[in-house]
Amino acid sequence: MDRRSMLLASVALAGSAGLAIAQPVPLNSRQCALLVVDLGTDTVYLVRDVDGNGRAEGAAENTVYFGAGDAAGLGPIGAMFAILQTADGTVYVTDGDTDAVYALRDLNGDLDAMEAGEATAYFGSTLVLPPVVLATPQGLAADASGRIYVSTAQVAGQPSLIWRTADGNSDGDARDVGEYSLYIDTTAEFAPNTSILFGMCAVGNVVYFVDQRTAALADTIYQVAPGVDDIVPSAELTAWADA
After folding, report:
1. How would you class 69 by CB atoms within 10 Å of its CB: exposed for 0-12, middle for 13-18, buried for 19 or more?
2. Residue 9: what pLDDT?
3. What is the pLDDT of residue 27?
4. Is residue 223 within 8 Å of residue 237, measured between CB atoms?
């Protein structure tokens, strides 16, 4: 694996039982294991300290979790800017090339998501009708209710948005009517100033996101008032911290 590209990658903690962990990881499930997105090879690697020497450098300690040659034919996924693993073990990755989010599941416990049924196109611009604006998704978060939030940066004239998704019919994706909705349009909320979303998380059912505004305005972490519905107006946003 290219170590230099690993340094640029997104990383998620991996748990022990079928990689099923929560966010944040419970103390009793923590181990020396990472899911690492390598932007150079368009691969998700499972990185583990198998021999307990405090390092993860052996061949058995750096294995492909998802990449080219998967049974679903979805890999390799290109510009993976975000990775998230939820309590049920599902690993979500964003792809800035196809403007989509993919769900990866290790169903047979072999520590990868390469077999049939283990990789799914979860949500994306051209995966739903009517198509949605999901230009370069770069942020992921999961709340306590199991909803997945996807954020986009303001790229090539596209707005900065946060979408809220949920797999309502348990078919492995959020592409059906009623399973996705526009949560926040920060470009509209903060106009005429520029809005650039960069980083997002959820604590319980409260969503936080980082907005890199303009050179004249401080970068700010916003808190969304809990319990609000789509679309969030500015009155439901609190400047939680700024640079």
Report:
1. exposed
2. 38
3. 44
4. yes
Tokens found for residue 157 = 């004239």
Amino acid at 159: P
- How far is 188 from 13, CA to CA, in rounded Å? 34
Mean pLDDT by 10 residues, the chain (243 residues): 38 42 44 80 90 84 93 89 90 93 94 95 93 92 94 84 95 95 91 86 92 78 84 87 80
The answer to whether 66 and 44 are in contact (CB under 8 A) is yes
Residues 118/104, Cβ–Cβ less than 8 Å: yes
Q: What is the pLDDT of residue 75?
A: 85
Three-class DSSP labels, the chain: CCHHHHHCCCEEECCCCCCCCCCCCCHHHCCCEEEEEECCCCEEEEEECCCCCCCCCCHHHEEEEECCCCCCCCCCCCCCCCEEECCCCCEEEEECCCCEEEEECCCCCCCCCCCCCCEEEEEECCCCCCCCCCCCEEEEEECCCCCEEEEECCCCCCCCEEEEECCCCCCCCCCCCCCEEEEEEHHHHCCCCCCCEEEEEEECCEEEEEECCCCCCCCEEEEECCCCCCCCCHHHEEEEEEC
